[in-house]
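Journal club prep — side note

Before the paper discussion, L.F. wants everyone to see what a predicted structure for a comparable chain looks like in token form. Sequence:
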Amino acid sequence: MDKTSSPVVKPYQFEGLTKLSSRDLQIEEALLSYLPFQLDELPIKRAVEEFLSQQFREEAKISLERIEESNLRKIMQALPEFCVLGQLSVQPLEGKAFALFDYTFIFGLIHRLLGAKGEVPIEMRNLSVLEEGVLEFLILKVLSLFYNANNQDTSLQFRFEALHQGTKKLAAFQRQETAVALVHLRIQVGGQSGYLLIALPHPLVEGLFLKTRHYSEDWLLQWNKRCLKRLSEMDYIKTQVLAEIGSVTLTIAEKNQLERGDVILFDQTFCHFSDEILSGNVVVKVGENANQGFLAQVVSAESPVLVKVIDYYGGNHG
């Protein structure tokens, strides 16, 4: 770019954005209610980390990076020539779930269990029968931990069906436009780390987490704790705080007729002027939230004005 020219902001292309229905959003919410971004308190996470730590004698960590919407055809067509894919199901629900492993990472883990040091493969190749057996052992063990972590609930029991290498036997899935929730996980074992992608078809997620979901008091308490923890991690972000002395509802025509010098009578106000001094209460609002905030008492009307928060205002604070 020429040093004398001004930077130009290119318009964002909104046409290519994926459109989500209200049902899609409900499915994502149901999945997140079971698999929150804060995974620290999730029993299956702790169980798998302990299992991997015992197997490899090094600390293992699992983190959830993100969940995104996609479709099965798009995922299958993007698979590399050499890939390792586990096919799962939950009876009697429709749809197949798939776990796509980081080839280099899983290759190293397999060979560590076989007594090697976990070297990076010299060339890409299919796993041998012995290597497949080791990986299937790991998959079956994790599925067993998932089953036990959910109190042996058969409605949440995944079944391992097949291990695919390459895309030859996946042609039927490459033509399916089934919507899926794609879960991105990062797994670290000692100094090695890799990704694990889990593709969950919407019908399967709906049957597993949406229809069986319930909001018990204990669940709501734990969810609130996780939300507060996430908020505490963002407490450095600055936001604007406004103090409202009153409000009135006007029509668009009335608003357009306002001129300098017009006097507006508020429909609702908690404060008043006496001898040109502000006293009483104001509503303190954060950002542009017009429905709720804090009720605050004017302590000093001199510059700068001081207010004292005394209660919540509006919204649900039960």
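L.F.'s comment for the group: DSSP finds eight helices and 13 strands in the chain. Keep this in mind when we get to the figures.
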